[in-house]
């Protein structure tokens, strides 16, 4: 059965939701669990719901939504990691059985090196102490700084969202691949096979992602690569079923054991989806 390692819910204008904006017409509406069920079909056994707003209110709402929703196996929320109160907030969130980790929205911050800031140490300590993980929402330019953190903190479980949003629309494959290779050499670093089609230009064919997927499979393999829909953002490029089908068609993922890992087991293990509060 399928575990979706990365998807979102939001209510426009509520819970500090300011994105997506109206010009993104395909996703500028409310998305809730019933919509996910309709998009994914009956094979979806559960999902990891990831924050979409840099807001405590958004995280609190997602946790309330998860309380009575069996489809949500885990929540990755937002915390102001530089706040003096971050350790306290992380401790409180960790008491919620479905809270699994945090995601600072690094792609939107003005300082590309923010994640390597020494002031994050108390928050990182709290994440590790409570068995929580870090989702890294990054581009290639952030990867050297993420490497600094990962090298400094081998005790912190890290997953790179969307393959670090590679430059599919551009011509910088080698830079991305080399930076990802250095991170993949660290055993605590995982990666999500998600969010790639929305990094391509509209005039590019679906096959434009092939060298990037092949490299992620080679770097992270069946032990540290997990599939995510990035639904409903994926609707900007295709739909849930088409993205899932495209990934399943890669030769490595036709192997049943490899597919079982990428489409279920890695997410379960990384996010400790069968565990209670830490």
UniProtKB/TrEMBL annotation:
The keyword Hydrolase applies. Residues 3-273 form the Amidohydrolase-related domain. InterPro entries: Amidohydro-rel, Metal_Hydrolase, Metallo-dep_Lactonases. It holds the Pfam family Amidohydro_2. Keywords: Hydrolase. It comes from the Bacteria. One of its GO terms (molecular function) is hydrolase activity. PANTHER family: AMIDOHYDROLASE, AMIDOHYDROLASE-RELATED DOMAIN-CONTAINING PROTEIN. Belongs to the metallo-dependent hydrolases superfamily. This is Amidohydrolase 2.
């Amino acid at each position: 059965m399928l575990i979706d390692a990365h998807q979102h819910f939001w209510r426009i204008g509520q819970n500090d939701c300011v994105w997506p904006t109206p010009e993104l017409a395909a996703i500028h509406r409310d998305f809730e669990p019933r919509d996910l069920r309709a998009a994914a079909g009956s094979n979806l056994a559960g999902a990891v719901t990831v924050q979409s707003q840099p807001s405590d209110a958004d995280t609190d709402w997602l946790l309330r939504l998860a309380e009575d929703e069996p489809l949500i196996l885990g929540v990755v929320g937002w915390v102001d990691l530089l706040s003096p109160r971050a350790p306290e907030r992380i401790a409180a969130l960790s008491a919620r059985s479905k809270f699994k980790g945090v995601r600072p929205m690094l792609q939107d911050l003005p300082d590309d090196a923010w994640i390597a800031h020494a002031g994050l140490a108390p928050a990182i300590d709290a994440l590790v102490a409570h068995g929580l993980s870090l989702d890294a929402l990054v581009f290639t330019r952030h990867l050297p700084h993420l490497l600094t953190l990962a090298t400094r903190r081998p005790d912190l479980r890290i997953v790179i969202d969307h393959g670090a949003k590679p430059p599919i629309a551009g011509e910088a494959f080698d830079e991305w691949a080399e930076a990802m290779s250095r991170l993949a050499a660290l055993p605590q670093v995982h990666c999500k096979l998600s969010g790639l089609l929305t990094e391509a230009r509209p005039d590019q064919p679906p096959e434009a992602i092939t060298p990037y997927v092949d490299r992620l499979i080679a770097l992270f393999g069946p032990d540290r690569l997990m599939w995510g829909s990035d639904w409903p953002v994926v609707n900007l490029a295709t739909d849930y079923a088409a993205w899932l089908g495209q990934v399943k068609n890669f030769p490595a993922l036709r192997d049943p054991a490899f597919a079982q890992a990428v489409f279920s087991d890695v997410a379960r293990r990384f996010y400790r989806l069968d565990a209670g509060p830490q």
